[in-house]
Write a structure and sequence with these properties.
There is one protein chain. With about 240 residues, the chain is mainly beta. It has a single domain (about 45-239), classed as Beta Barrel (Porin). The chain contains one helix and 15 strands; from the N terminus they run αβββββββββββββββ. The strands form three sheets. Strands 3, 5, 6, 7, 10, 11, 12, 13, 14 and 15 form a ten-stranded antiparallel β-sheet that branches. It has a three-stranded mixed β-sheet with strand order 4-9-8, with no helix packed on it. The longest helix is centred in the first third of the chain and has 16 residues, at about 1-15. It is elongated and about 65 Å long. The protein starts with a helix and ends with a strand. About 25% of the residues are buried.
């Protein structure tokens, strides 16, 4: 929790400081009696909306699930996030510019089971079992509200790289099974998930274009001893 508080405090301080935009004043004079002229160049805080889309999975086989099976599809398991971000100037007077990027996002981790396995919760235990009917789709989904804090460096060439961290709270989680020839069924629940999760993130690409991103959560999203002890990763493209 100290880590989460540190991230939130950093974001609040940076947002408050953004109101004091950086100003560069250039004064030009001549030998005549012309009054002194000044020009102000102000680097302002900007806002944008971004979409993250890619793949996610556990870093190792989730053997912490009870029962048989439990393998996730590497292609079907997808990550999506919708982000509202502020770009706050920190050092922008030279050819290399430093900005702080932060703002809320809603993120979805979709873990797609292979075959006809499904996840159920019984007596506070997570169990993976084969479905009694053939399933066209079976997945486990978590939704959370995150606050990333990213330091972004931009070079004269237009290449940018960002590194930072994020923390978030669980909004929802559910399983979804779609039998062959029938409607999908959703089952909502806590599924022994931690209410707060955190991770590390990096982004790289060129200014004004789509960027590659990577995320890594070193701790298991599940409570200790109540789910797989495996970290979560995600990679993809930021639009």
């Amino acid at each position: 929790m100290n880590f989460v508080q540190h991230i939130l405090t950093t974001a609040l301080i940076a947002t408050s400081a953004a109101s004091f935009a950086q100003t560069t004043i250039i004064i030009t004079t001549d030998s005549s009696t012309t009054p002194v002229k000044s020009k102000k160049y102000i680097e302002r805080v900007t806002s944008d909306f971004s979409i993250y889309a890619g793949f996610n999975n556990f870093s190792q086989s989730p053997a912490g699930f009870k029962g048989d099976g439990g393998a996730f599809s590497p292609i079907g398991s997808r990550f999506v996030a919708l982000a509202w971000q502020k770009r706050i100037p920190l050092a922008v007077n030279g050819s290399t510019k430093l900005r702080l990027v932060t703002g809320p996002e809603v993120a979805w981790n979709n873990f797609m089971f292979e075959d006809s396995d499904k996840l159920v919760e019984r007596n506070n235990e997570l169990i993976v079992e084969a479905s009694s009917v053939e399933l066209r789709k079976s997945k486990f989904v978590t939704t959370q509200l995150n606050l990333p804090v990213i330091l972004n460096v931009s070079f004269r060439s237009g290449f940018t790289i960002g590194m930072g961290a994020y923390a978030g709270i669980r909004l929802d989680s559910y399983t979804k099974e779609k039998p062959q020839g029938a409607r999908a069924v959703r089952t909502h629940g806590a599924f022994n998930l931690n209410p707060v999760r955190w991770g590390l993130t990096t982004e790289l690409g060129f200014r004004g274009t789509a960027k590659l991103f990577g995320r890594y959560e070193p701790n298991s999203p599940f409570r200790s001893g109540q789910g797989p002890d495996a970290s979560v990763w995600a990679v993809g493209v930021k639009f």
